[in-house]
């Protein structure tokens, strides 16, 4: 579904991504691992259209999306849950969610309302707090809000960047079970995560990134592939 | 004792009232400036010329028989596409380059110079004084106030409230605030950020044009009218906090009152320096403005 080929990205003089190729197929969670600063977030930002690549191709459902504006990319069904959640200040929980409606043009009000109700069923806590200002939620609740905000746009593939960073262990469990249930519902996910072992448990496949290049890849269930991953990224 | 009451009623109050009229007009002008800055991070040096354009457009339309009340709608409506086009065709061209602050500043400054010369070419250098649409006065608290100024105050206040509602209670407003805070995230949720930028520039410019129509009967219309007025609007925007709507209202009232009341006690020539001294003081002590906080930052 998502096919990245030989992607190069420069920030000024620094060559951040040096020929990254990876793919995400229907129905799978793909982990993208590596130490801080190796370019994982840059991969996500480039796919979402926040960063324009120097060269290489990104195809989503067969259509070339590299260099397109983010609003067009998200309307094709590619949802972005970024690092640091990026909840809008001054907006209530529900207002944050309603911004997500814009991902779908020409959707009836009734359909949007149903999408909102579905998000509330998935995260009942957000329904309780829907009148609260989003940035006053706890870190875990904000993460749920960031995921829900994208889900109300009915994405067909999700990019989720470091969803459990800085969260309490109990909330971490909850986020991982959300990821599992999304996968079971058939939404493929490209997942960047520092908690490699936890992430491998919910992933089908993985890639390891080191200094802007893919240095290992494999099946999450294969012991040998896992060893290769751990050697590659030296955790 | 009677002297003091008379002083308050016949000297002090009219001056406060005059300050309020000017204050409301300055706020309208500064609102456009601050919204454009808050969202686009662009300081629109041509804002004063769009204000003048509003006044001149009003004169042209009026000479074709358009009544004053219709002008209040027609002029902003004409300015909307002009503002949208200016952003699309000029500002967005340089907006994505690295030194965009300098480039947009120079670009809008150049636009201001061109517009001012066009006013001179089209309308001549002389001052034009449109007829006051509402003549006569109204008695209020034992004082006699020009009716047009009363109208200006009420109409301006309603418009300011409407702008607040647009920014805080509409879908367009939520797109503006979201894009102002985080353009990448907003865009990834489907906000067409480029169009929102241009629409907001158009909205701000239309507000400037509206103040031009409103103030023309009081201040007259001349090619450099924008320059004189924009300085006050800049002071208001800076004192209120760049990009802050409430700050603009607060600072607009404060500075115009300082200007009005101080002219009772010192030579009016010194009233403006006093206002700008406050601006400099705020920049030194509280550079983020009295109320601080940009648009979209809660």
Report the major sheet of chain B.
2 strands, antiparallel
- Rounded to an integer in angstroms, the radius of gyration calculated over CA atoms of chain A is 17 Å
Low-confidence stretches of chain A: none
Q: Largest interface: which pair?
A: A-B, 31 and 20 residues
One letter per element, helices H and strands E, the order of chain B comes to HHHHEEHHHHHHH
CATH C-level of chain B: Mainly Alpha
- Known CATH architecture of chain B: Orthogonal Bundle
Which regions of chain B contain 5 or more consecutive residues with pLDDT less than 50?
A: none
Name of the CATH superfamily of the largest domain in chain A: P-loop containing nucleotide triphosphate hydrolases
CATH topology of chain B: ABC transporter involved in vitamin B12 uptake, BtuC
Number of helices of chain B: 11
**Large-scale geometry of chain A:** globular
CATH fold node name of the largest domain in chain A: Rossmann fold
Question: Keywords for this structure?
Answer:
heterodimer, A: 235 residues, alpha/beta, Rossmann fold, 2 domains, six-stranded mixed β-sheet, four-stranded antiparallel β-sheet, 9 helices, B: 298 residues, mainly alpha, ABC transporter involved in vitamin B12 uptake, BtuC, two-stranded antiparallel ribbon, globular
Can you describe this structure?
- The complex is a heterodimer of chains A (235) and B (298).
- Chain A is 37% helix and 26% strand.
- The longest helix of chain A is centred in the last third of the chain and has 16 residues.
- Chain A is globular and about 45 Å long.
- In chain A, α3 runs parallel beside α6.
- Chain A folds into 2 domains: 154 residues, P-loop containing nucleotide triphosphate hydrolases (Rossmann fold, 3-Layer(aba) Sandwich), CATH 3.40.50.300; 65 residues, no CATH class.
- In chain A, the strands form 2 sheets. Chain A has a 6-stranded mixed sheet, with helices on both faces. A 4-stranded antiparallel sheet of chain A has the order 2-1-4-5, with helices on one face.
- With 235 residues, chain A is α/β, with parallel strands linked by helices.
- The N and C termini of chain B lie far apart (48 Å).
- Chain B has 298 residues and is mainly α.
- The mean pLDDT of chain B is 91.
- The longest helix of chain B has 39 residues.
- Chain B has a two-stranded antiparallel sheet with strand order 1-2.
- Chains A and B meet through α2 and α3 of A and α6 and α7 of B.
